[in-house]
Amino acid sequence: MAFLTALDGVAGETLGWSSPRLPGKVIAEPAIALKVISDAFQRNTDAPHLGVTQAYDARGKRVEDVSITMTVGGYSDSPNVRNAFVLKWRGADVGALAVPILRRLVSVWDPDWAAVTSRTLMRAVAEVQPAGKPGPKVGHLTYLSAGRAQALPGGLDDKQLETLDDGGVVIGSGEGDGFLSVEGATALQRRL
Fold first, then answer.
1. Counting Cβ atoms within 10 Å, is residue 183 exposed (0-12), middle (13-18) or buried (19+)?
2. Within this chain, do residues 43 and 105 fall inside the same structural domain, yes or no?
3. What number of CA atoms fall less than 13 Å from residue 142's CA on the CB side?
4. Quick one: 6 and 88 in the same domain?
5. What is the pTM of this model?
6. Are 170 and 143 spatial neighbours (Cβ–Cβ below 8 Å)?
7. In the prediction, which pLDDT does 146 show?
8. Coil, strand, or helix at residue 11?
9. How far is CA 151 from CA 22, 36, 123, 169, 192, in A?
10. Domains in the chain: how many in total?
11. How confident is the model at residue 176 (pLDDT cuts 50, 70, 90)?
12. Strand 169-171 versus strand 52-59 pairing type
């Protein structure tokens, strides 16, 4: 819930988050949030190693549509089953929201990697970053955890690389034209 509230702050408006499992109920109310989460864990008793999947969505004026889909708590050895967090939005300037949203996501969820991308970029780099390929996907803006950052190849432009307090790095500044271009994302994906 704290993450959803933080996203409201980034968007500059209260988005009224809901779950497809409880249509019409705003999950900002603690009792509704608890029900959504406890129901998800109860549904998953047959295969707990696969994790729990949740989905939330909201609408606003600045951010027309925003959705979150996540699978958490999985511990399968299968490379096809992984914990994931996907946040999609439409309607607001990517440049204005990408950096604060990525920082909130990293601080709350402590992911191995994260990327701010678009369908256009995903299509453009599909050759070097095919669907289902394990490992980090590079976006216009990419976060690598401290452990993953140790494997970065040398020679990256310091203007494109920001080291965070936790030792992770953000590649692409997100300021002005600082986002990685299609060419830059493709080159970095090949190097990783």
1. exposed
2. no
3. 25
4. yes
5. 0.79
6. yes
7. 92
8. helix
9. 43, 39, 25, 11, 8
10. 2
11. low
12. unpaired
